[in-house]
Design a protein that fits this description.
Pfam family, one: Pentapeptide_4
Protein name: Pentapeptide repeat-containing protein
Oligomer: single chain
CATH topology: Pectate Lyase C-like
CATH superfamily: E3 ubiquitin-protein ligase SopA
Distance between the termini: 60 Å
Structural class: mainly beta
Number of domains: 1
Keywords: Repeat
């Protein structure tokens, strides 16, 4: 059986490339609590303050969709494709994302504490003040993304990579890491949680940049005289 390719090596797909593209049905309505959305195409809609907690989105595509606020607690997104999606605020606590592809999208102020993300691929996204506290990220890649004020405090990161991405004021305090690859990050701006980088791989250049903060965490005083 061929070995599955690492998620950070994938190229983003177009809508027509999706294996279920021919089965998609345009959506026309509202999102409901506990709703089932299977092979649905969401195109150009704006959902404001929707209550779709516990909803299931399976083999569905979202293009140029805007979410403003709303409650999506414990919603499940399986084998979904999002392109050009804006998500302003919104409560996605304990939501589940599996085999999801998120391209050129911009979540801002979005809350995903306790969420589960497995085989999720972010490409050229802008994540601003996104809350991943205590989330579980497995085989997740952020490719050429900007992560600004993103909070991974208490999260578990396994097989996570950041190739070509810029990290600004990202928090990792009390996070648990395994096979986390930070070497490809363009900028490694970490505001908290340097001691949580145990289990991560960084480059020699990044080590030199982070050395002062590592020394501070260890209580080491560096002096030349």
């Amino acid at each position: 059986m061929p070995k599955r390719r690492a998620p950070h090596r994938r190229e983003p797909r177009e809508l027509g490339d999706l294996p279920y593209a021919g089965h998609l049905e345009p959506f026309d309505g509202r999102l409901d609590h506990g709703g089932d959305y299977d092979t649905v195409l969401f195109d150009g809609q704006e959902f404001e303050d929707a209550d779709a907690g516990g909803a299931r989105f399976i083999e569905s595509a979202f293009t140029s969709v805007t979410f403003i606020g709303g409650r999506y607690r414990r919603a499940r997104f399986s084998d979904v494709w999002l392109n050009g999606v804006r998500w302003v605020g919104g409560d996605l606590t304990e939501s589940v994302w599996a085999d999801a592809e998120i391209v050129m999208s911009a979540p801002a102020g979005t809350a995903l504490p306790g969420a589960e993300l497995h085989q999720v691929f972010f490409h050229r996204c802008k994540l601003d003040s996104v809350n991943f506290r205590a989330a579980d990220l497995r085989e997740v890649s952020f490719v050429e993304c900007t992560l600004r004020d993103v909070d991974f405090a208490g999260a578990t990161l396994t097989g996570v990579a950041f190739p070509g991405s810029t990290l600004e004021r990202v928090r990792f305090d009390k996070a648990r890491m395994s096979r986390v690859d930070l070497r490809g990050a363009v900028s490694l701006g970490i505001s908290d949680g340097y001691d949580a980088l145990r289990g991560a791989t960084i480059s020699g250049v990044q080590l030199m940049q982070l050395a002062p903060m590592f020394a501070h965490v260890l209580g080491v005083t560096v002096g030349d005289d």
